[in-house]
Amino acid sequence: MKWRCNYCGFEGDASRTYYWRCPRCSSPLSLDYPVECEFSSSNVVWERYSGFTPFKPSKWRGEGLTPLVSEKTSGHTLLFKLDYLNPGGSFKDRGTALSIAYAYMLGYKKTLVDTSGNTGISVALYSKLYGLEPTIVMPKTAPVGKKKAVLKLGGRLVEAESRTAATQIVEEYIGEPGVYYVGHLWSPLYIIGHATIAYEVYEDYGVPDYVILPIGSGGLLLGVVYSFEKLRECGFMEKTPRIIGVQGYSCQPVYRALYGVEEKGEDSTLADGVMVYNPPRAGEVAGKIREHGGDVVLVGNTEISRAHSELWQMGFLVEPTSAIVYAAYWRIREKIPSNSSILMVLTGSGLKTLL
């Protein structure tokens, strides 16, 4: 298992030393490890797809293997991946389970993360599972229910004025003895963890024609693309889906990276979970969207609110950030050929936003 920087060529032994970013040029790192092209029949996600992951966490709480629900509408097959049903209420549990297991393997005693909410809950949950002490830095504007969940899980909560300020605050703690900075915006372990989503979809359905994904840091999109690429390399499939990313008008760094401009539109503050203004992998995300014939769709609060209400009426109890994928579908549905299948990952539980 080896760290690799695709920008400056740095390499390091990941079994001995943790780097949350490249120590030479400060760019995001990749993780190199051998891949075995096989699934098992286990009902534990890390055993089922152990050939595609660098190691198996020693503890878990039932993350992964979430339901895939199919609905027919407007001549399309809509595939809803219910990742808000993970133990911590979001898809982040997949990446966190790997990341915190790795911290434990290397002997860290404390964990640290800056987050808009869901990652904080996830890091607190898995840190406590391994007996580590979590510090969660969140903006004051984060939903109250998410803050209460962090505290209930035993996390130390530090509030910041904004999401950007939260990132600045963690810099005060990085480098302290025994502190593991999760760095989920940077970490390839989150990309690898999120990749299990597409392995599950492939087993449950096959290969969808389109995939619509929310973009905050871009780790979810990179993980899903990575897994479909691996499945193709392993000979399980001949084509990969067209990838559609979704951002809001209030925060569109990947749209800007893809097209070189920003578009004016209605505020998208309801989708607080994707308000990442400077994602470290923005260029990488834009490149993968371009490579897979995709696009970035921008939505505003009116569309988000309508999609959120409709999803609840359909029985999907998600938070507003999750609804941006459904809002994007309605924006582009007339451009999608009839009889196409469209995968939408529903990322976070709405129950945490009701308190």
Q: What's the overall average pLDDT, rounded?
A: 96
| Estimated helix fraction | 25-40%
Q: How many domains in all?
A: 2
Approximately what portion of the residues adopt beta-strand conformation?
15-25%
Helix/strand-derived category reads alpha/beta
- Low-pLDDT segments, ≥5 res: none
Largest sheet entry: 6 strands, mixed
Order of SSEs: EEEHEEHEHEHEHEHEHEHHEHHE
Spatially, the strands of the biggest sheet line up as 4-5-13-10-11-12
C-alpha-based Rg, rounded: 19 Å
Envelope shape: globular
Give an overview in words.
The chain has 355 residues and is an alpha/beta fold. It has two domains: 187 residues, Rossmann fold, CATH 3.40.50; 90 residues, 3-Layer(aba) Sandwich (Rossmann fold). The protein has a six-stranded mixed β-sheet with strand order 4-5-13-10-11-12, with helices on both faces. A four-stranded parallel β-sheet has the order 8-7-6-9, with helices on both faces. It has a three-stranded antiparallel β-sheet with strand order 2-1-3, with no helix packed on it. Helix 8 crosses helix 9. The chain is globular, with a radius of gyration of 19 Å. The N and C termini lie far apart (42 Å).
Quickly describe the structure:
By secondary structure, the chain is α/β, with parallel strands linked by helices. The chain is 33% helix and 18% strand.
What tags apply to this protein structure?
Rossmann fold; alpha/beta; 355 residues; single chain; 18% strand; six-stranded mixed sheet; 13 strands
